[in-house]
């Protein structure tokens, strides 16, 4: 089979490798689609991976084609999204259902082979979120991972009906966070970004968007909220400037959700540090999503929302390629030759190439 393999920093190759055979509880999935995550770019070009060679890609979905355990034969032919984290099951986090905080986890696409391939070996059916409605597309299912991250951020922000929300960052996670905020009942949702292409893309999907490179973002947010400020600010860029803006635009007693991974030194201005205290702002961190059944499995709920049509995600996909074009797509994104919202590998594109 073909697979996009990382052999070292900057050394990404499309190769022919042996198709895996499932044993025990393992399940073989034929990949339908796999998304490029923002974390994949530094993994390929700057930071490297934990093991080499590695088939990267952790945002994926596909069809079950083989099983190692006869008890899993009911899964054959079914579409499913994949929860890529492989928890140890023994640490305190795992024993309390917080699998994304596992102390000794493995991970498809970053620590073991993932979805940028024709097939991927899934550890067990526990990692699968099957689609009940066959009409849901592979493109939609491969976006369940970022959909869940966005949903988790909105839940951490405790967004409720009638509230006003701002999301810093108008990429796919930001737009999905805004959509979840609307689903959760927010009466006003504002997006903020500095990239005009992203700003126009989000506006084209019906959102109120501020270009903070062209206007004072905090001032604009306060004007849009009648001077009160937002109830919840979701900081999705990982930058100090947006964190400071979040403190300035959130109301007294409001909440700030730290969603974006920091990629530079974060400096909080003295006046804003003081404002966190004076306004008694609640800060919440976000790490991935929640996969336990109680109180609610965010992955299963996301698939249900896609199937019902209440959550729309496929329109965020701006670039699609088959495996043969995937390396070039990675390079073009890294070299800023193109601006994307969501870029994916789609098995349907293989035939076109």
Q: Name the beta content range.
A: 25-35%
Number of helices: 12
Number of domains: 2
What are the secondary-structure elements, in order, as H or E? Answer: EEEHEEEEHEEEHHEHEHEHEHEHEHEHEH
> How is the biggest beta sheet arranged?
7 strands, mixed
Helical percentage: 25-40%
Whole-angstrom Rg: 20 Å
CATH fold-level name of the largest domain: Quinone Oxidoreductase, Chain A, domain 1
* Average pLDDT: 96
Low-confidence stretches: none
The secondary-structure class comes to alpha/beta
- Name of the CATH class of the largest domain: Alpha Beta
Number of strand segments: 18
**Shape descriptor:** globular
Please give the CATH architecture of the largest domain. Alpha-Beta Complex
Distance between the termini: 16 Å
CATH superfamily of the largest domain: Medium-chain alcohol dehydrogenases, catalytic domain
GO molecular function, one term: oxidoreductase activity
Family: Belongs to the zinc-containing alcohol dehydrogenase family.
Domain Enoyl reductase (ER): 8-311
Cofactor: Zn(2+)
Quick rundown:
This protein has 353 residues and is of the alpha/beta class. The chain folds into two domains: 2-143 and 313-352, Medium-chain alcohol dehydrogenases, catalytic domain (Quinone Oxidoreductase, Chain A, domain 1, Alpha-Beta Complex); 148-285, Rossmann fold.
Describe this structure in words.
This protein has two domains: 2-143 and 313-352, Medium-chain alcohol dehydrogenases, catalytic domain (Quinone Oxidoreductase, Chain A, domain 1, Alpha-Beta Complex); 148-285, NAD(P)-binding Rossmann-like Domain (Rossmann fold, 3-Layer(aba) Sandwich), CATH 3.40.50. The chain contains twelve helices and 18 strands. It has helices at residues 40-47, 92-95, 138-142, 144-156, 172-183, 196-203, 217-224, 240-249, 270-278, 298-308, 326-334, 347-352, and strands spanning 2-8, 11-16, 27-35, 54-55, 59-67, 79-82, 85-86, 106-107, 119-122, 128-130, 164-168, 188-193, 208-211, 230-235, 250-258, 282-285, 317-321, 342-346. α6 links the parallel β12 and β13 (208-211). The model has no long low-confidence stretch (mean pLDDT 96). This is Galactitol-1-phosphate 5-dehydrogenase. InterPro entries: ADH-like_C, ADH-like_N, ADH_Zn_CS, ER, GroES-like_sf, NAD(P)-bd_dom_sf, Zn_alcohol_dh. GO terms for molecular function: oxidoreductase activity; zinc ion binding.
């Amino acid at each position: 089979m073909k697979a996009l393999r990382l052999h070292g920093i900057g050394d990404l190759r499309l190769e022919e490798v042996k198709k895996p055979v499932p044993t025990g509880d393992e399940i073989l999935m034929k990949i339908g689609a796999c998304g490029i995550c923002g974390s994949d770019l530094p993994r390929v070009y700057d930071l490297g991976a934990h093991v080499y060679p590695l088939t990267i890609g952790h945002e994926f979905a596909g069809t079950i084609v083989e099983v190692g355990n006869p008890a899993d034969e009911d899964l054959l032919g079914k579409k499913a999204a994949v929860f890529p984290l492989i928890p140890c099951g023994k640490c305190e986090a795992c024993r309390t259902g917080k699998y994304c905080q596992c102390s000794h986890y493995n991970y498809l696409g970053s620590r073991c082979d993932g979805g940028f391939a024709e097939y991927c070996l899934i550890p067990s059916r526990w990692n699968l979120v099957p689609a009940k409605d066959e009409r849901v597309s592979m493109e939609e299912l491969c976006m369940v991972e970022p959909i869940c991250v966005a949903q988790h951020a909105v839940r951490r922000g405790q967004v409720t009906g009638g509230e006003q929300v701002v999301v810093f960052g108008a990429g796919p996670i930001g737009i999905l966070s805004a959509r979840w905020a609307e689903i959760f009942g927010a009466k006003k949702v504002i997006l903020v970004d500095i990239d005009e292409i992203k700003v126009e893309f989000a506006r084209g999907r019906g959102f109120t968007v501020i270009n903070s490179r062209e206007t004072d973002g905090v001032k604009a947010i306060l004007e849009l909220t009648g001077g009160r400020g937002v109830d919840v600010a979701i900081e999705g860029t990982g930058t100090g400037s947006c964190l400071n803006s979040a403190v300035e635009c959130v109301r007294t007693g409001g909440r700030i959700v730290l969603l974006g991974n920091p990629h530079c030194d974060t400096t909080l201005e003295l006046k804003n540090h003081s404002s966190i205290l004076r306004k008694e702002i609640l800060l919440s961190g976000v790490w991935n999503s929640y996969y336990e059944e109680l109180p609610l499995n965010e992955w299963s709920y996301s698939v249900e929302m896609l199937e019902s049509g209440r959550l729309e995600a496929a329109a965020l996909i701006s670039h699609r390629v088959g495996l043969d074009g995937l390396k070039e797509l990675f390079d073009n994104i890294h070299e800023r030759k193109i601006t994307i919202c969501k870029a994916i590998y789609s098995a349907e594109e293989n035939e076109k190439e």
